[in-house]
Amino acid sequence: MAMTQVEAAKLSNDMLIRGVIETIVKDSAILRFLPFMDVTGTSVRYTREATMPAAAFHAVGDTWVEATPTFTSHTANLAILGGDADVDNYLQATYADTNDIEAEVIANRAKAIAHKFSESFIVGDTGVDADSFNGIRTLAPAGQTLAAGTNGAAIDLQKLDELIDLIKPGKPEALLLSRRTRRQLKHLRRTTGPILESTVSQFGEQVETYEGIPIVVDDFMPDNEVQGTSGAVCSSVYALKFGMSSGLMGLQHGGITVETVGELETKDATRRRLKWYTGLALMSELGVARLQGITA
């Protein structure tokens, strides 16, 4: 069964675990949308449809030719994401009346995990870091990639519509972009009319939409990509769809855990270990599309 981390937090009876999950989700824009499936083992193997069997009209008495679809097999591995949180026993004992030091330290570590997941979701590349997982920049197929211009160009609404049309079936569930690109869209709104609308998210926040598609701004969307001779000044917009059969799926084994390692031998402190066996799989190539080469 697939569910988002938002829903997973509601099912946890452990206040610490629930607090950690909520912190991670709060600090990762994409985790509010991404569903997860639980994986037994170190990887998940899945199959994509490659080609459909041909169909044709026939005359009476024609010979019918059998045709079969073809499929491709893919594997996505789990990566180990986490870190240790050391709490000084003296500070915890003497300052707990005004500030729960342990809670602050663990929340800070959870925030760091959220940031690392968000970064890897976008630019993760096992060719660069073998211990990570491939993000959407690596997973986006060439056939699902557009360029704003040969050497980069400002964002164009026609190109944005073309990007949206690459997602099938239906429409994207999110448009992922940087703050700089969102500013460009707002500029287009002021100069060409009300192209952006707003709605209220499940967190009670105002969310901007384009053609009814939520605009997700992530601080880990880079503005230093290269397009042709542009230099490292470009950004991308991703159209995303989620789900087991239609797009992106988060992978995990056992969810986010917090373990008590215990008292440290060399200092007066207690260690907690936050870890998450996680990854990302693109179930359908038509679930991700990229518009690259957007300049300032």
Description of the molecule:
- The protein has 296 residues and is α+β, with helices and mostly antiparallel strands.
- The chain has one domain: phage-related protein like fold, CATH 3.90.1690.
- Helices cover 25% and strands 33% of the residues.
- The chain has 7 helices and 16 strands.
- The strands form 3 sheets. Strands 6, 7, 8, 9, 10, 11, 12 and 16 form an 8-stranded mixed sheet that branches. Strands 1, 2, 5, 13, 14 and 15 form a 6-stranded mixed sheet that branches. Strands 3-4 form a two-stranded antiparallel ribbon.
- Strand 11 and strand 12 form a beta hairpin.
- Helix 2 crosses helix 4.
- The protein is globular.
- The two termini are 42 Å apart.
- The model has no long low-confidence stretch (mean pLDDT 88).
The total number of structural domains is 1
Q: Biggest sheet: strands, sense, closure?
A: 8 strands, mixed
Global mean pLDDT = 88
CATH architecture, by name, is Alpha-Beta Complex
Low-confidence stretches: none
Structural class by secondary-structure content? alpha+beta
Strand element count: 16
Order of helices and strands: EHHEEEEHHHEHEHEEEEEEEEE
What is this structure, in a nutshell?
The protein has 296 residues and is α+β, with helices and mostly antiparallel strands. It contains seven helices and 16 strands. Helix 2 crosses helix 4.
